């Protein structure tokens, strides 16, 4: 609260205040204005504070009156203050006058006082003034000697102290005084309690332990001189309640000091008097301390029922009672009093009932006669001695009925432990102690605090102890039950006390009682283990265990019938849940175990003593007999179930055995049946039919076997016998999965070596093992046996392939060892390595689900495995022919072409043909092991057929083989034949011909068949050999097959649908020579009206159908009979020698037909323009639309060149590497889209071209020609020719340099990767602009191609967007053509990038996409803005620059597009780059702009990528500041003009 100020009228300073320096003048009633305002504020605050305290206690009307009065007073006071302040403004004159008057008064007063002082001095002071007589002797003595010895002697006597004695004299005096004290003590009477003393420094100090310490001395050596008491120290302390303070006040000590000193005078027994006085005082003090501690202990921690002060006589005794709840005649109490029997009468403790003298003295010494005087310690120690005494008596009672049991009584507080079992943990023993507060017995079992028997036992200990033997027996059984539960804690079993029986079984063991437990096995729900518990008659603390195995069934009620299967040993498979759960148990059988036999099997001596080196100590709560029996049941029951299931399947076995050293249980299987025999075969065929039906319903493309061929390999007797000789043993064991803790079967097959040696380091020995695992969770042992038989079939079927393959691998005449290497053969899987470094792998295994062999391919460290694309086709071929040799040959021959094909990109791209629809660049569709289809952007299709001798054929897959129609899904590739002909190797094309074949060329029909036409497919699909076997793996040919190289064509379908398969010709399924001879006349040359040869085989399935037709599957294999009867394989004709067997005659060739032109030969041979033919005629033929339908023969190296990414032929186009095939197809696609644009755009006029593959069109004043580069056919080129103007209307003409810039821009920016057709829309719209406007666009193109022509003034580079980038303002959808024409306005987009400076990188430069609108009518260039979107600062700055240019542009007769863009690139600045303008400098209008001329091609940056996410294309620019002044670059004059 603020201090209370006085009223202004009562302030002391108000009425009598005088300024400093005016004390002599008249009093002026003045006061400082600041002090006055301070006083007023204090008074106002004080009244407000008082008002706030008093108003709550008044009524509402009184409060209002008080508030009004306070406001009126305060207002009046501050009104006066306001008037005073206003008056103070005119007080300056009064102040000056008052100051002058005060100064004059002060001067007057000084003159008066000076005169008065001079008069007083002359009259009073100077009258008696005389010069004194100087003390010459004293001055001489002081100046000469430095001392003065003439002072009065009284000063020395009264003031100066006497000199102190020397240390030697002091020491001598104290020694003498010690001798006097020692003499007094020897000659005087000294009590025994004061025998402990020490003499030092002239004093003697007596100390009585735990009571006091006193110091005395004498003042002389006479016997009559009394003792002088120097110091008293009381040693009694209260460390519990004293808080560290002294118990005796200093005044009390002074009083005792004076009392004892008075008694020491003229007292012959002075020392005895000192002891008596101090001893009585200290003893009383000790009793008082104990009493105080007792009261505080009773008040704070204990109540009256625990301890009570029965009697307290100060200075005499203190009696305390305890254990008041305990029934006793005398009660339990203790008394602290002086001991009259001892000299000195110290404090002693008397106990009722009495304790021994030794215990009582010990209690007194611990609690009373010690430094720590404590009643709590006294009571605690007394209770401890009482507890030990009572527990000792109880121990004797226990020993009466528990013989040979080690009891233990120890601890503080005392605890009696009674073992219940033997052996017994200390935590399982009964701990009996006494409650220190009440004295009652307490008992518990530490490990089982929730034991219900301990409460009854505790009641018996305190009341009737005759019940203890029976309670101990109950506790023994109860703890044994808990031990059983603890033993089964980590075992798959649960112990329960009861089972839910509807009717109690008749067995006496299962009657109600406490001496048994039921153990439920988790893995076997229909089996229980009954454990019977008994106490040994000789040793009650030991238990006996008897085990019974029971078989139970579950039922809903009594009417539920139990089937006979529950009575068998085999565990019941989990039944489906019923409506009413089966809760009740019914016992079916009960078998008693011989405990000794069960626990003393091989290596299972449970109770055998451990070896010396073993230090494993099992805890007492672990019951090894129970654990072993439960584990034995859990382990052996599944084996017995599995053995019964094996017997049901007629599989012989040797029964359950224990392995050596008792490591595990094992079930030996003697033999397994041959898969696919008798009933098993029919069952597997039924399963196969069901699986195939399910696969068809699910829509999966599983390889299906051909009609007439077996899906399962045939197991020859000699192969089966060889496998049986290699099988050494089949063992079944049980293990637990460490990760999932699930029991599994482990079946071990041991084989003797393998017929196929591998290079795996772990497969070099003669002993080969195969481990198979099966889960045991479902108790379905029949399913386990079926899975075992299925895995056995995997081994057998794979062995049939390996057995034949091993023999062929050993054949030195076959180059299989050079083709591949066997990496691993584990009887379940065969891993083959092939390729140049043998690092790619093929894993072959038998699949039970698909009933056939499956193949998986894995790549190596430096290579990928491209055969994954034809995995299903290779698996189908292997399942049809069951020959690993053919698979090895196919993998070897197709590795390089498949690796080349795998290098083509398969990523999806946007903008083809619609911006928001992704399309795959390449899609690989394998139709057979030697047939592959490639689709490009779902528009074009290529058909590749793999041949021997490192050859393959490629044709246009859009052409049908049956009709002249084109497959609807694809478009023919124009110029494909000419493009492929550039990669044809002439020597390789004629590598497979004999010398006389040049004289007798094949017919075109035959050439197509030999180059992978349908006839070869037909032959393979009919069960023939692989086309790759013509290069080193052919069998001998018969001379009768000389002219049967061309098979008969199949009948084409009657409908127009090219995907409808043809009906096979009878000769396709036959293999005889007669049929081939009969069909020779069908191989006629194509009709004149057909653009390509007539079909000679089945039409392959559409690329959109992922499941190949069964007739199209190639089935290569070394089939000698087929090679003798079918000589229509495409690779046999290309072999350099028709017969590689020694001594075999060569095969004759058919002669050419009359009228066969060289074009047929060159076209069919795939070497167009390579053999000295007329290149003009060949070019015309190659560029025909139907020329690509004829296969072209290439080498693997040529395919690698086609598919491997390489730099662009035009070095000015800076793009990522791309394969030549992709560039060619992209250019063809762009040319096709351009042709479609010309037909759809009204402003473009199509012109007829005499050259195939050239797009010719014209726009206003320009004629354009787009063609492929005929050197490499990987780039598109634009050729522009300016049409002559009409004579009556002169027009603006572009210069040749401008036309050259347009052509170069088309080549490097429009028709360049990534080949987006919308770029063509933009360039066509630009070409259709007026020539004056197009001139400025050409200038922008020139500036983009060659930025250095812009000069040093440009701060930004420019790129014209042909497609809408995602980062631009969303005016046009992303990816579409971003040049829009309408209403005499042109909308286009420019991407500008800041030119880096000061060593910065281009990637750190900000970039911006600007939408520009040019109005042709008004000649204005400005930015397009959307009202609903807030532009960025940089966009706003660019728009401001364009508007300012339009405002100050003086050249109205010139197109403003390029000058405005140049002005923007010159003056647009970032806020961080902007220089500070000088003060008061205005920003002037821009100056004129010239136009530069330059020819050249350059690349700075790249156009926005429409595939890039929008977040990556946001313009990274800073805030825009003010635009500084600057000029424009002065470029060259405009070279164009009217002509």
In short:
The protein has 1539 residues and is α+β, with helices and mostly antiparallel strands.
Written description of the protein model:
By secondary structure, the chain is α+β, with helices and mostly antiparallel strands. It is 34% helix and 17% strand. The protein is built from 37 helices and 44 strands. The strands form eleven sheets. Strands 13-14-15-16-17 form a five-stranded antiparallel sheet, covered by helices on one side. It has a five-stranded antiparallel sheet with strand order 18-19-20-21-22. Strands 29-30-31-32-33 form a five-stranded antiparallel sheet. It is flat, with a radius of gyration of 61 Å. Residues 1-27, 566-578, 609-616, 678-710, 994-1178 and 1476-1539 have low confidence and may be disordered.
Largest sheet: 5 strands, antiparallel
| Rg over alpha carbons | 61 Å
Structural class: alpha+beta
Global shape:
flat
Query: How many angstroms separate the termini?
Result: 105 Å
| Average pLDDT number | 76
User: What spatial order of strands do you see in the largest sheet?
Assistant: 13-14-15-16-17
Number of beta strands? 44
Number of helices: 37
Strand content: 15-25%
Low-confidence stretches: 1-27, 566-578, 609-616, 678-710, 994-1178, 1476-1539
What fraction, in percent, of the residue positions are helical? 25-40%
